[in-house]
Amino acid sequence: MSKFTNHVIAGEGRPPWYRSDGQNCDCYIVGIAGGSASGKTSVAQRIIKNLNVPWVVLLSMDSFYKDLTPEELEIAHRNDWDFDSPNSYDYDLLLETLTKLKEGKTVDVPIYDFETHKRVPNKSHTVYGANVIIFEGIFGLYDKKVLDMMDLKVFVDTDTDICLARRIKRDVAERGFDVAGVLTLYQRFVKPSYDTYVYPTKKNADVVIPRGLENLVAIDLLTKHIQRQLQERKMQSRWDMARINPPEELPKSVVLLENTKQVLGIHTIIRDINTSRHDFIFYADRLATLVIERALNELPYESKNVTTPTGKNVHGLNQKALVAGVSILRAGGTMEIGLRRVIRDAVIGKILIQTDPSNGEPQLHYCKLPPAIVEENTYIFLMDAVVGTGAAGLMAIRVLLDHNVPQERILFLSFLAGPQGVHTIANAFPKVKIVTSFMDPILNTETLFLEPGLGNFGDRYFGTENE
């Protein structure tokens, strides 16, 4: 696997995964079944092209073939192994993968090598989140548990002679088989399996598409149906909580820097409209260092005895946890220099979240996270400059949770926060610590970018195109 879990989506971003009642908003699963080489993948790709929505995952059942033992491999290389039996697939792994995808979580899909008849060791395809999952395979409509997860079930019904011709062409050109071997497998296993197992699953389908990809009218009608279903399932995200009137008392999960003269002095400088960009960067880096140093106090430590250069034994503490930083772009990147000053070897990931102007909901556009975030002794410093409504913070924390980072190992760091934002995040994720240097009682979504001297924190730090 690559060093980072990396997802870049052009255009519209991925919407939130949760509803106002706090439950995950399941994605839409389309199951496509049919005989071998019936055109299932082509139909799936046509649907994806027609949908024209981001974050669509095409999942092939071929990825879930079971690994063969050495004895079974010998049989397979003699073209005597039945790969068209339902028992050839790892249904437990398939069900686990579909379940996680439906919940919006990250998964590692195996890569299967048809020439060696084994999964490629230490390699997988990382998939994170989906608006729509297109799942295709000959037994796509076979297993009861998998069927129950599907929102729409499709069977591609193509003439068996056409399927055979396509299979010969595909297996010889793409999978390294010879023609005689393909015909042997087809006569002994593929055709009997289709008659016994695959074709009977046609009765489980909501829609049957005759002739596969040739039937463009049926595919286009099916696509429009899916689009209508997606439109109806749009739900308001969890950040509706930002509209509540927060109580005066701060949540217990909020850690506020001591209101020292130094902190007040730095805030005075960075919020002054007359402060130069050079000075703004200098004092923002200083403040970031103070916030990160305060966050380190929330990490676990253990006792440690050391010997000094003079030979004396001294009792001290040793930080047990490692730290990885994750910036919410672009303003969260303003804390990265401070993080490097305090923790020299900290790895840093990035998340880009932007607000949809049509409905005010946050959308994920980019996600690049280091694999170290899932290690048990790694704590995540999630960094953003300002917490206004808490909408971006909610989504960023949700992204980390979907990558199997527990709440108690997430610390949300900011320069400045408003009561609405911290209460929103604390209500949704009470185990996440929020560390900030200053609470502004009047900071909200209306004043966030209009307040004199504050402006857009990222623009003041990194500059604009005109600078």
Automatic annotation (TrEMBL):
Family: Belongs to the uridine kinase family.
Biological classification of the source: Eukaryota, Fungi, Fungi incertae sedis, Mucoromycota, Mortierellomycotina
Catalyzed reaction equations: cytidine + ATP = CMP + ADP + H(+); uridine + ATP = UMP + ADP + H(+)
Annotated NCBIfam families: PRK05480.1, udk
Gene3D superfamilies: 3.40.50.2020, P-loop containing nucleotide triphosphate hydrolases (3.40.50.300)
GO biological process: pyrimidine-containing compound salvage
Residue span(s) of domain Phosphoribulokinase/uridine kinase: 29-217
A UniProt-annotated Pfam family: UPRTase
Domain Phosphoribosyltransferase, chain residue ranges per copy: 259-464
Keyword Transferase in record: yes
GO molecular function term, any single one: ATP binding
InterPro entries: P-loop_NTPase, PRK/URK, PRTase-like, PRTase_dom, Uridine_kinase-like
Pathway(s) annotated for this protein in UniProt: Pyrimidine metabolism; CTP biosynthesis via salvage pathway; CTP from cytidine: step 1/3; Pyrimidine metabolism; UMP biosynthesis via salvage pathway; UMP from uridine: step 1/1
The entry's keywords: ATP-binding, Kinase, Nucleotide-binding, Transferase
Known EC number: 2.7.1.48
Protein's recorded name: Uridine kinase
